[in-house]
Amino acid sequence: MQIDHALILCAGMGTRMGEIGKKIPKPLWPVFFKTLLELQVDYCHSLGIKRLFLNTHFLSEEIETHLKSNPKFADVIMLHEDPLLDSGGAIHNMASRGDVNYTGNLLLVNADQFLFFDQKYFTDALSALENSRAALFGIKVDKSAKYNETVLENDLLKEIRKTDGSYDYITYSGLGILKLDSLDHVAGISKFFETVANYKKERVHFVVPEKFEYWDFGTAEIYFESIQEIYHSLKENKHSRLMDFLQENKALEGNVDAFFNDELRSVNLEGNGEFFANAIVGKGIVQKLN
């Protein structure tokens, strides 16, 4: 089996990115010298996926302009949503296109998160997909993490629930492979675990890597912390799967000290060396960190 398509979810409102998020859509926030969107396309290409889609809603004109500015995006199809369809609706909107027609396997990717693990886990997921609707990648998180717990039985999803914070648990990472064949079409707005990976009606398999790297850029504060960690790793010559990925895809080729100032704890999204203490700077906005 293989992965035939990828859908990069880019339609969020960016509310967790603060005032700058009202001007720059989250997928276009840079990780030093490449945008999150560019890096997600690189990630999909590294897996041999050639048919790429992304959904948009908020600030879609900026994303469209970005796509047209770079030949790398020549094979990326933008699907604008109005109204916002939620993740289930986004998948059905893409899968119901005439050139897809609910055929093949789809990699689902969040624009603001990266999960790295050994290639064998993709092989395991594709094998599990032979008799499942979905093979989703779960990650083990600390009890203090504020995610939903996914309750598994023989590697199949049985329940999604809140935890009381008393134990470590497994949560859905946002990365998964879906079998589109014979998926019942649902039009309009719908939720992922109701109309796509409905574990109450179909088999939804979980693959949980023992060793992995999970990187989140989903809020302004978490984005800053991730950028800070990357900067320190670069300066200290520390290797990781993410660092290797960024190096391979030329995201760190430039003056990193004009992008991040460790002493002032400041990021300049335009990489022009203008910093303010405890702040993210971009689009003429100085956004203070909490």
Straight-line N-to-C gap: 46 Å
Task: Count the DSSP helices.
Answer: 7
Tell me the overall shape.
globular
Q: List the helices and strands in order.
A: EEEHEHEHEEHEEEEHEEHHEEEE
Query: How many strand units?
Result: 17
Stretches with pLDDT under 50, minimum 5 residues: none
Overall helicity: 10-25%
Content of β-strand: 25-35%
What does it look like?
The protein has 290 residues and is of the alpha/beta class. It contains 7 helices and 17 strands. It has helices at 36-46, 60-68, 86-95, 120-128, 192-195, 220-235, 241-248, and strands at residues 5-9, 30-31, 34-35, 51-56, 76-80, 105-110, 113-116, 134-141, 149-153, 156-161, 169-179, 204-207, 213-216, 260-261, 266-268, 279-282, 285-288. The chain has a 7-stranded mixed sheet with strand order 5-4-1-6-11-8-12, sandwiched between helices.
Task: Set out the fold topology.
Blueprint: E1 5-9, E2 30-31, E3 34-35, H1 36-46, E4 51-56, H2 60-68, E5 76-80, H3 86-95, E6 105-110, E7 113-116, H4 120-128, E8 134-141, E9 149-153, E10 156-161, E11 169-179, H5 192-195, E12 204-207, E13 213-216, H6 220-235, H7 241-248, E14 260-261, E15 266-268, E16 279-282, E17 285-288
Parallel strand pairs: 1-4, 1-6, 4-5, 8-12, 15-16
Antiparallel strand pairs: 2-3, 6-11, 7-13, 8-11, 9-10, 14-15, 16-17
